Fold these 2 entries.
Entry 1:
Amino acid sequence: MILLALILIPLLGGLLAWWAERFGTRATRWVALVATVLQLGVAAGIWAVHPGGGQTWWLDYARPWIPQFGIGLHLALDGFSLLLVLLTGVIGVLSVAASWEGITVKVGFFHFNLLWTLAGITGIFLSFDLFLFYVCWEVMLVPLYFLIDVWGHEERHFAAKKFFIFTQTAGLFLLLGMLGLVLTVAARFHVLTFDYFTLMQHPLGLYPLARWLMLGFFLAFAVKLPAVPLHTWLPDAHTQAPVAGSVDLAGLVLKVGAYGLMRLTLPLFPEISRAFAPIALTLAVLGILYGAVLAFAQTDLKRLVAYTSISHMGFVLLGIFSFNTMAWLGVTIILLAHGLSTGALFIFVGILNDRVKTRDITRMGGLWARAPILGGLTLFFALAALGLPGLGTFVGELLVLQGTFLVQPLFAVLASLGFILSSIYALWMLQRVFFGPPAPHVEARDVKPHETAMLAAAIALTLWLGLYPQPMLDTARAGVAQMLSTPEGGTP
Amino acid sequence: MATVPVAHGLLLAGVLFALGLVALLGRRNVIFMLLAVEIMLNAAGVAFIAAGARWGRVDGQVMFLFILTMAAAEVSVGLALVLQFYNRTRTLDVDAATSMKG
Amino acid sequence: MNIIFYLAAAVAIVATLLVVTRLNAVHALLYLIVSLLAVAVVFYTLGAPFVAALEVIIYAGAIMVLFVFVIMMLNLGPQATETERGWAEPELWFGPALLCGVLLGEVIYLILRMPTGTTLARVGTPEQVGVALYGPYLLGVELASLLLLAGLVGAYHLGRRAPHEEPGGGV
Amino acid sequence: MFSLLWLAPTLPLAGFLILATVGARLPRRVNTALGVGSVGLAALVSLLLAAAWAAAPPGAYTQTLWTWLHVGTFAPGITFYLDPLALVMLLVVTGVGFLIHVYAAWYMQDDPSIRRFFAYMNLFVAMMVVLVLADNLPLLYLGWEGVGLCSYLLIGFWYREPGNVKAAMKAFLITRIGDTALIIGLFLLFAQLGTVQIQALLAAAPGLTPAAATWAAALLLGGAVGKSAQLPLQTWLPDAMAGPTPVSALIHAATMVTAGVYLIARMHGIFTQAPGVMTAVAVIGAVTMLMAACSALAQRDLKRVLAYSTMSQVGMMFMALGVGAWTAAIFHFMTHAFFKALLFLGAGVVIHALGGEQDVTKMGGLRKTLPGVYWALLIGALSLAGFPFVTAGFYSKDAILYLSWTAARGAPWLWALGWFTAFLTAVYAFRMIFLVFHGPAVQAHPVRDARVSVPLGILAVLSVIGGFVLLPRVLGGFAPFAAFLRPVLPEPPQRDGGIFEVVLLAASAVASLGGIGVAYLLFARRRTTSPDAGLARFWRQGWGFDALYDRLVVHPYLWLAQECRHDVVDAFYHGLADVCLMLNGWLSALQNGRVRWYAGALVAGAVLLLALLVWR
């Protein structure tokens, strides 16, 4: 029941926020903030009261929905999902706070879309029925399309369409894969069901069609992740989206891709995924290096940050296809840390854009003199992006690379080059924006208190992840082990 | 009573239908096109009657009744459209109506 | 009886040909009425007197009258005939005629290929038709009535000249 | 008493945190006091630890603060490990660090960003302490990257000058290449030995296969080479002089640059399993030492002379490591920290007194205006040049030279290179002294401040007496330093010295004195200036490595980035979109809005369908 509440809070909060617009925009904002904080609170409450220990499934909620087709309203929660739901809560609060002043038109509809996106994402993390999963997938995408299309920057219509076409095509692959899987299982085992656990008990093994089904499941999530060469929607969408949209995209939507791969693609098709691993690992390494090179080449600050996401998600893909617990725990940490630090970078770009009215880094420079606090905060997140030890991203990348090295040393070594390339773009960004002689005609005030508070929260969480990630690792461990426990058994 | 081979009835229907079709495609005047449609509907009726007569069943006649009904409805709506069309474009040239161009 | 059928068929075809080729709408309409009457005779010879009667009353009578009304409302004069002549260019006819010729050829081929049979002289009285209509085809009748209603409403709606509309405002 | 260990990194870290967060609201004096005081307290803690150690050596002391992360056997903790080697490093880092902080309080007193300066400096000290105290490789890597970060921030401290920021970036990126090698080495060691704890690794090292040991040692060497500015990753160090002088003294002379030496000494168990890599260490060290000495000879910028000198001296330490003379390397690290810090601080005063002038050819005769500094720098230069029998530099350098021949891995040619470098060192050290302090006098402001004289004085004393802790056998063999480190660092196997030792000792003395003499002839008597062409120019520009890397790495990368800028992959999708648009154009041309055309299409369809029936 409490799982349903996790989804319903943003869902109803969205409606309420829209309705509350008649009492003024402040009411809308407060409703949205309360809803996100409430969701975060519920998730944190679950974490706090959970006794710990080894059990995999913390909560489970199942009701029949469309029993004729074996579709049920099946929600469940393990530690891994819980961490992602917590991230959703944090990013939700951050994105509502980040749009506190930036969004001035159609405020009610904006928050409705924002909260429904969050609801869809939460639903994805909790759904254990493929049909429900797909419904949540769509609930996430459509509001996001509106967020980009209505409140975005100058080329928002193009970016929104590109985003929608890519993700909808991905959704189509997912749908085809799901239906194919369900029907194949029904034909072979005479069980018509969309239920995750039931499907897991009927493995297809190396059934010929399974190869294509796995490809469908892979493509859908690889677009979302995004893996090179399916990534090109992301720079446009990130660049054109409003701040909250970018924060959501980077902080959560990309995580959905990783989650899907870890929860669905690999456990459902373990043998084929293993056979597929060399291709996926190659794509991962390509993504790491390509994203880093392109990030360095950009002049638009948001685009730059967007390409860094591609680079980081390469590490995620690398870890996922290494099939061992260490790498998967590392992926968990990267997902959390990247959500926070990249989200914060987008907030920073938003603040900057608000101050200097441009995102073109060739027209900035010397901002440190005008806004030292902003500079210090940004320095922190740039360092997180380049993988400085002690910050969250590093722990994740360390575990991923170490885990990968145990099974695929060559790929791990190639991926490590990302450390060098990432420092190039991160330092380059700092240099162009903050150092050098102050650019003329740039009036920049330093950060406001609520902005400092947002970023300080993100800093605290990033440091926590970087210096004491053990609680998260312990929380995720059982769930990750369960997903990896394939017929052959995962490498420890 | 002597009887007619059913093929001849159908041939008559085919010829009438083809004539209507030629008119429909060849003429630009909307009224003539409607007339052509009537010819074609009528031809279809002939085919139904001939087929009904072949098997000695009344179903063909029932179908003709339905065609008749449909023709009545079609003509009334079609002619109303013609009036509306003429009011807007001041012509009966069907090629003047191209705003649905893709 | 056979002769009557062939005669009526010939009249129908010739009259229809004239309908297709006339330039004056009223003339075409009159030839169409001739054609319909001839078809009514054909119906009679095929053993469907009830339908023949309906053909005369509804088709040749009611529907054609509608056309006449509309043509009168449009008030097409001699210049309409001139316009029509201008539109009736040979190249405009060539393509449709060829297409329809091919179609007709195919139809004729198919008709002649199928196993033939002969028609019966008398297949159904009006009574039998009525029984069939209100028996197995009851649903069809209901649908037809709905269709007529829709046609009525549609014609009324479309035929009304909206006060705010300007002529030539585009379709 | 040892439980105070955690304070050593925490105090400077606390200083950093306070300065970074609430420091803006505090007056400058308080900020300065905080910055200097936190390091001073850390130095005090170090001294207490040393005293406790002297009273009752525990062998080694481990303190775990918390478990960093724990996945299977991959379980690095925030754990500090104190043994003699770490203690020596800790003392030098906090002690010299404190002196330099005191000096910096004077040097930076007029800078508006003094708070930021001390924040970075404190963070640096904290990270350096973490590095030397780390119990496991990931924690060491944390410190390793942390000092790199502070180095970056401090080189680019005066960020308004684009050149400074570029130099900072260059330093970070080049060392990052080495760091990446280091972390791959970490992966490899864990994959092979199943632990990241340094002591456990060393204990298990003999179990490594030769190939794995070679790879692991080579990767660790990569890290050390980057941090310590050795060939081929040495080009960042001269440019790093863009930072304030106390930074150059602390980071780019005394402590961070020698982290590579510490790493190799710390991980010597791995290196001894890989003889090929040991040789590589020695050769890299020897070649760097010689090349850098030549470059130092040709420099005009005072700080760059010292930078190349640092590179050369660290190369000498590497040579020592390469022949297995671990103790000698650490010994030289210690003395070098004293005299090089002294030289840098003195040079900072000179530059300050001349209003920012750094070109030695435009200086001269300063021994009248700055007598105290003159003596300090003279002592530093003597120690650097290895003036026989009284300076610390002589003993540490002699230990290295001696072992480079007589150690089992040593070789006469290594000694010869070392000897020649020692000679060159004396030449360039005294070239600097003569050009700056002798000859025609230039205008300068005298400097009188306790914050200058006390650190300089202490460092000068240390530069002299610091050598008497490890005397050669022929001079009595008083060697408490080696005895102290012996539990950690074994003595290299060596041939018996005897009379040979005396000969080598004499040769060292000759190199030093001869170098000073040559410098006197060339620069005190005639004030020779090197021409801006030919070999001198080549040496001054660091043997052309910058141009080479520009051509080989930087330009290709920039080109690649520029080519890919608009995302070549996207071109594919744009092509796809164009194809769709084209098809759309075709299909929408069919949709021409003409009813008769549609009807015609309908008929044509009917014709085709019937044709199917006809032909069936």
Note: Chain B touches chain D at residues 21, 24-25, 28, 33, 94-95, 97-102 (CB under 8 Å).
Entry 2:
Amino acid sequence: MDALLGQVHALVAWAFSLANDYDVPSLIEAGVFFLFAGLALLFACGVIFFRNVVHSALSLTATFICVACLYLSIGADFMGAVQILVYGGAVAVLIVMAIMLTRRDNMAHSNPSRGLFRHAAAAVLTGLFLSGMAAVAILSPFKSAPQSLGDAAPGLADLMLSHYVLPFEVAAVLLLIAMIGAIVLAKGAEER
Amino acid sequence: MMSFMELFQLATHVGLHHFLLFSAILFAVGLFGLLTKKGLIPLLMCVELMLNAVNINLVAFNHYMPVYDYSGQLMAIFSVAVAASEIAVGVALAFRIYRDHGTVNVDDLDEMKG
Amino acid sequence: MEFPLLSTILIAPLVAAFALCFVPKDDREMIRRVAASATIFMLCLTVYAFFNFDTLEGGVQFAEKIPWVADLGVCYSVGVDGISMPLLLLVGVIGISAVYTSWNTEKRPKEFFILLLLLIAGVTGTFIARDLFLFLLSYELFVIPVFIMVLVWGSTKRLPKEFVAMKFIVFLLMGSAFMLVGVVLLYVNAYPAGERTFDFDALRLAGEMGRFSDSFQISTFPLLLLGFGSLLSMFPFHSWSPDGHAAAPTAVSMIHAGILKKLGAYGLIRVGVLLLPVGAKYWSPLIVTTAVMGVLYAAYIVMAQKDLKYIIGYSSVSHMGYILLGIMTLNATSVSGAVANMVAHGMMTALFFSQIGYIYERTHLRSIPELRGLAHYMPHLTIGFMLAGMTSLGLPGLIEFLPEFTIFVGTFGVYPVQALIAIFVIVFTALYVLRLLATLLFGPKDEKYAEIPDEQGASMVPLIVLGVFIVGFGLFPSLLMNVIDCGIEPLAPVFEQIANAPTMMGGVR
Amino acid sequence: MDFWAISIEIAITVLMLLTLLVDLLLPKDSDRRAVAFITVIGLVSVFVFSLGQYHLSPSETFYMGLFIADNYSLFFKQLFILGMIFVVLFSLEYAHKFIRYRGEFYSILLSSLLGMCVMASANDFITLFVGLELMTISFYILVGFRMDKAASGEAAVKYLLVGSGSTAVMLYGISLIYGATGSLDFLTICRNIHLFYAAGLAGVVLIMAGFFFKLSAIPFHMWAPDVYQGAPTPVTALLAMSSKAAGLAVFMRVLYVAFPILGTYWMTLLAAASALSMIGGNLMAMKQKDVKRMLAYSSIAQAGYMMAAMASADYAGIKAVMFYATLYLFANVGAFAVLSVVEEERGGTTHAHITGLSEASPMLAAVMTISLVSMAGVPPTAGFAGKIYIFTAAVDYGYVWLAFVGFVMSMMSIYYYLLVVRAMYRDLEPQEEDSARPIVPNFSVRVTALLSAAATLVVGVWPDFLARATNFASQTFMR
Amino acid sequence: MFDFALYHAWLIPLLPALAFLVIGLGTRQDKKKSAIIGITAIGASFLLSLGVVGAVLTKRLVMAAPFVMKTVWAHIGGMDLGMGVLIDSLTAMMLVVVTTVALMVNIYSVGYMEHDPGMGRFFAFLSLFAASMLGLVISLNFLQMYIFWEGVGLCSYLLIGFYYYKISAREAAKKAFITTRIGDFGMLLGILLIQITFGTMDFIELKTLVPQYIWISGTSFLTVIGLLLFIGPIGKSGQFPLHVWLPDAMEGPTPVSALIHAATMVVAGVYLIGRAYFIFAELPIVMNVIAWLGGFTAFFAATIAVTQRPFKRILAYSTISQLGYMMLALGVGSLTASMFHLMTHAFFKALMFLCAGAVIEAMHEEADIFKMGGLRHRMPVTFKCMTIGVAAIAGLPPFAGFFSKDAILAAAAEVSFPLYLLASVTAFMTAFYMSRLLFVAFFGEVRDDCPAQETNAFMRWPLVVLAVLSVISGAWGHFAGFGDWVFYGVHEEEAINWAIAGSSIVLSLVAMWLAYQIYVEKRWSSFQIARRLGVLYDLSYHAYYIDEIYAFIRELAVDKLGRLALWIDTHVVDGVVHGLGRLAKGVGAVLALPQNGDVQRYVAIFYTGVVALVAYSLFYAVKILSVTGGAF
């Protein structure tokens, strides 16, 4: 009982203190973060739990966009743009196309899941992984010190074309090969 | 024990840990999907979720930690490229599977075992 | 530079094997002629080496040394001392006998002789190696030839030959796994990185400098023992051996019982006892006891066996027990006896198997109740069997008597009870050998063997070659013993050291 | 910027584009041997050219040390190139029979090679990641390249799914390392004390998990058997030798260059994974009936051996790994060359398919035997010397138990290798007479098979040359 | 001349050995040449032996001062193993006995074996036997003796099994070898102990070392050695528990029985003890054992011999009995008597066996004496010779046996009355059964179907020579002073003790009379007596069922145990091996169970591994944090 009273006290005191030092920008920041993060997680869950795979795909796109918004919120504007373009655009289209090409019948139950046991096991495993990662995040005494490195796009361009030009070129080859490979595989599938 | 207030304070001061936890959860959701979905395409979507989650990590570190260039974001960009390639190949393979098996459910893929 | 005698001996079968690759596979005559000439050449050289071995000078002779693998500290270092010289001779003798025993191989002769020559080369390399790496390299060379030979040319009796081939190899290699751990431990502990070497003498030197602590020796020796002991068919790690004999083609049985097992014993002396004397001493009561148990146990099993190859297989387990006994008693007398017995038993067993092979090849029988009264039609075969049998039961005047006697002399003073049992087994040996000979050779005539020719020409070669050595060394043992003696004599300090080391029973025996 | 440092990569890229181009130019119905020959000739010239890159002076780097062309990477690159040459050579007939898009096949082979080469030289996580993914994605495609076989597609899907999972984990690890140290550059990371953060520690293990996946170490091995079995045989060969070697090369660089201060931390893990892989891989291989699948399990064990040497974390260990990777390459080339011929002639790679091979083609049977024995580590093949190097390194560091497990398991492994030999050499049942029908492999297969067998034997009997080469490469690496 | 013989004494065994080689490798197929070579070699040895005797007599090489030549045979592990020649009076006596009998048997065999296709082989083996036996006789040390000891064993084996197509012969040969092997085992132990204790096996060196040893350490350990050494003679000389092979050994050709199993080889045991008497004589316990065992064997074998029917079997048991006598003599300390009896026995037993051979051949391989009868008419020479033999063994003066047996009885009486009594009873029984043999086979009516004819000259003359020797050797030995030469310790002048001699003569005569009454006059029916005796007769007739007991023991302790061991080996030892193999495979199969093709399971296992690694890293991180307190 006492503990409860204590909590109530604290709540009241907090309300007062809130009035005292009302840090608007920080709260807005928090609001934005929680809004988009929450939405992203919600949509992510939608990817998994929608019965209709098209809905899942749309949900995935929504997740991507929410994440892009988060990027924007911490100043990674270029990254946000890439996210929207590549994920929200290209990948989503690819996926929807794939769905259309591999499924021509009723979409109602087009996103089946494994059995109950598998869900339970997956939940345990996922939970363990999550708690591990959370523990890692919490146990690490990061000394965060946000700073501005200037505009992201020029900074990235600078890196990409000087420091990391080689990976950049290799990534080009990678995309080329992925394209060729995808064509070959898909073509092979067609020519039955 | 932490009081509500401190908790709230902690929650409202959005920082690195928020993003780390968020990305961990997103990753976990993707992982959960990867383990439970049947269709190949939903599985690919889940993979994308996981890769995306990691990107959030990278971008967040790049923003919050005392670093002097954008290499974290760059890494994320490369990861996007890789993810895109992966999904392209994955989709092509989905066609293969669909052709061979008439379905894209991976639980039918057990020709090889033991 | 001296003529590289030992290398020539080593290379001869390899060259022949290589040459055989280019002989058309239907030209049987050519194939066996090539194989035979290689082994004859080998025999001549080994005999030359044996009789030119300077027993007064002793030490390592005909040595050659070429740096080989620099960073492991490996040299191509060959040479023979008084211990390995007789065994090299044994290889030469059994090599030629094996080739001639297989003279009439009809099934895929080309591959057969290639593998046989490889096998011979491998065992040769082991005995002449003065470097542990080279030793190991040749030591396990037998694996593939033996496996394939059993598989293709073997015979199925109690167990399918495929199964036996597998058991044979896996068993031995499992043993050698332990041995390899031991060897690596030795190698690493002997010298600090950069100075390491596989050279036997250098390793011994390291031992003398005290690089191998007592506890290290005690823990490492069992590893080596497991490896070498299982090749030596030490009880209770012998079960690969009789089955292996039974399934293998004759030539392989000869080499297997005649040489391979000796390889185990040789390794045990060369690596186990000489490098880890204190460890050997510590375990010796246990090993001696199991050795004697093996002697008795295998002799008992022979009593119940009917299949000729199983009989000889188990009897060789029994005889190898004597050798192990001699080695692990760890004094100069017993070890010399063991080394001599290695030669003796090798020749004896090879002779036995070659005779069995002869009869099996022609009748496809080798079970005692099915074969009888062979003496009526095959006097030469009878002589072969009698000679082998009498050698086996330790008849004086034949090669095996004096080595056994020496082992007994060496052992009796140290382990009287064990020695007593071991000596008593000579009665059993007589019993089973005589039973075998009696049923196989003597008794009423059986017309079904009338058509089978007696040994003639090529098939007499094993009998003659082995017989000459069995009788010759039996009547003039000093030919053999002097060589062995000059190999054992320099080891006196080792035995001295051992004499004062504690055993697992505590104290000094 | 020094293009000399990336000349090999440039050459391979050019070659890759050339093959694409030639493929386009060739008439539609021509067989693509020309492409294969171009590939081989090109790779041989690259190989010869690369010999000239060994150096005693400090290593060349391409831009700010992010890409280093040291002797170590050079050695591995040559290894990959060599493996690729062999694979292309022995798969000529195989590709002709089973691969529909041969021109693209060779291009993608080359792109995977490019990925490996980039990995071997990578000195920061971005380059590493991109190279790794280039290789991996190429392999996803290659594994699915047999359009006529459903198993091939299935294998590709499995590889892709598990591989993506592993990519995600590895990326996660990289992100944590980045978070802890603020850098992706190995040379910067290695000096950063913040690696001891939980994030750093977790990052290391996550990265290791990614590499364990590549090396198919237990318990990250589950994909390997299915993928090896389903993939086209030449691709399986590459997976077993090159992909694994590339993983090793970069794994060692990451551990030794980026995380040396965590040595005691990851060594334990390596030793444990090594022991698990050696035991599990060998035991599971025992009951396999399909040779390719058996080789998959055996490759798990082989990875275990190599990790045992890595666990000792000094130049002797690196050298042992390099030595072993080389001889493993030779052994694999031999084995898979034979298997590809068998699959081509008899339509499969199970024990039933290789039965009677010793009569159908003694040469192939002998090569197979030698290769398998080398994998088991029995003299006089190279495997024996390799094992001695590996376990000497392990024992030297104090991992006696690891050496013990390794030797015992490697000798146990002879069992399943000999099962194959047994199938090839055993007497044929009357109804199997068909299996004795002669197989005459074509010239390139013969050359490849004999070369690999000869190399296995020569290295086994006279390991000095290879030992010197690996010493040279590894010592400059540790410098 | 004598010097030549002495210094070339090593030729004595070598010549027959060479003959063996020549016959074995060359002339085996040619009967005549083989015979000539064999006889020539043994004849030369005989001459040389005579020369040696001459040398011994002229140079007075008594046992205390022998002539020695030696060479190193092998040097091994710190032991010097010598080979050499030791010539003294004992050796000389043995040489002459052996060569004489061997020569006679060789000549006899020419006749006996003339129709046998294996005659060449036979002569080869005979030569080898002679070589081994002579080598044994001139042995300088225990090892050499053991070597030739085994050599004679081998020859015995070969010759017993000469008719290898006969299963009985084959089995008898085997039995002989194995039984003597058991004895050899003990002897080998003894020799080993001597080598270990004294560091030498040389008789001459031991002769000086043993007394010193006894002086220092007493006799207890030496007693063990002595007993072990004695096991060898028990086997070889057919003493009680190991006598079973000797009767069976009669499966061999009769000349072989004469040479080996009567005259020479079986006395090797006696000879060994005589040679090593300087050890045995110092060990009273061992001496007692020898004496009593000898006495018992003598009596025991005699009781069996009384009821046997086959000709050679009776002789065989009589041999055992006589060997027992010799042992008894040794045991009571009279080397002289023993050796004397050895010599005389060699002659008359060889004689009787050769007679037996003649009879059996004449009877077309019929051995049962009760199927013979009246042979004295058909084979007069043989009959006369046989009679001389029987008289000799019965101890009737002036035949050879009288002198030697008397000496033994006298020696026994001097030491122990019970032994004397035993010996006397045995003497009585000996006379009885030998006369029984003589009377049944040679007296009575000639049967209608009797094919017997007198034998040919080759077989006849050796009989005559041996008969002469059987007559004169005793008296000659006695009066020419055998005891002056062959003795141990201090030589005592011995005269015939007429009390003992007289009583033994009386006993013998009574026994012969009894036999005559039963078997010739048929005053008492032998069957009635047998029935009366009942169990005793059965026991005796079946040799106390010792063979059966041994067979039972062998079945139990060897064959059954062997089968048990085999079972253990295939099911337990091998079972463990196979089980381990299966276990490994099984574990592999279990480990591969998760590999069911389900890719999501693969992912799950992958992530399980990841989680485990993360857990490890967290554990490590917490440890670091706790160490550093979170400060970096």
Note: Residues 1-122 of chain A form a domain with the Four Helix Bundle (Hemerythrin (Met), subunit A) fold (CATH 1.20.120.1200).
